[in-house]
Amino acid sequence: MRAHDAQKNELKPWLRQQWGIPPQANAEFVCAMEDVLEVYTRPYDPTHPVVCLDEISKQLVAETRTPLPAEPGQPERVDYEYERCGTANLFLTQEPLTGHRHVTVTAQRTAVDFAQEVHDLLEIRYPHAEKGVLVMDNLNTHKPAALYQAFEPKLARSLINRLEIHHTPKHGSGLNRAEIELSVLSRQCLDRRIPDADTLTQAVVAWQQARNACLHPVNWRFTTPDARIKLKRLYPSIQSG
Description:
InterPro entries: Tc1-like_DDE_dom, Transpos_IS630-like. By secondary structure, the chain is an alpha/beta fold. The protein is 35% helix and 18% strand.
C-alpha cells in the first residue's frame, strides 16, 4: 500500500459527519422505501408525471467591505466580517424521467408556502397532468392539509384530488432525487455570500436555466430486489404464529 493510500484510509477520530442512518429491522422504514422505489420503476407518463420535491434554507449574508477581485494566480478575497440579512427558503422540484428541475425562492418556510408550491406545480408547470405523483420527505408542512390553510376548500380539494403523494422514510431522505439535486445547487450556486432574496432569485434562475439546457433523465438503478439483498439488515424478522 502506498503511503498516500495509508494516510487516506487511517482513522480520523476528530472528524464527524452528519448522516441519515436508517433504523435496522424497521417495518415502517422498509415499507416507505419500497413504496418510493416502486414509483421510480414507472415508465414515463406525461399525464402522471413523477416529481420529487425538497426544500432548503439559505442564510442571506452581505459584505461589509468590497471584495478584492480575482487576479491571475489569486482568487477573489473577501473580508472575514459580514452582515447577516435574514434567511430565504428554496423549493426544488425535479422530474427524474425528463431531468427537468425548477427552483422557487420564498421568504418563509411555512405550510402556506408549501401549498403555493404545490398549486404552481399542478396549475402552472403541469396544467395538463391528470395527477401529479409527488415524492417528498415527511416534513411537518408537507401534508395535504396545508392546502386548506392557503386556499378555499373547493380549490384545496381539487388540488388534493390531483395529487398522489409518496413520502420517503424517516432517515431515508436520500431516496428523494430532489435532495440530491439540492446538493448540486448548494455546491454550484449557494456556496457564496448572497445578500438578499432578489440576488438569490437571479442566481438560482441562471443555474436552473443552465441545468435545464442540457437535460439528462435520471438513471435510477437501485430497485426493491436490490434493497432486499443489500439492505437485508433493515428488514424485520418474520414473526410466526
